[in-house]
Amino acid sequence: MSTPDQVLIWPIVIYGGLVVLLVAFIVAGSWLLGERHSSPGRDVPYESGIQPTGSARVRYGVRYYLVAIFFLLFDIEAAIIFAWAIAFYELGWQGYAAAGLFIITLLLGLVYVWKLGGLDWSRRGDGGDAQ
Asked: Looking at domain 62-116, which CATH architecture does it have?
């Protein structure tokens, strides 16, 4: 007999086993019942109804990756500030000061990148264009 403080593990184990059996059954059934054929056009990637042209090995400039990194940084910043805004009253003045320090640090980083020319798209010949 178990006490209320003990967690019964056997229902979780049985459930996990049933899930594994169900997944195995579905995969095996689709493999047995599925069609097996190939044609020359089957391995060609579909690009909105247009036949693919050129190589998939296009080289992008460094600026493309800089924009991607900037997007990630500011997207994560927005998520953190949103979470802070939700918990604003619980965090109090200490949370307000921490969020202010966080925002000031990000603004200093933005000014630094701006001064280095990381946001300047007018320059050409430095890898900014896709080739």
From this structure: Up-down Bundle (1.20)
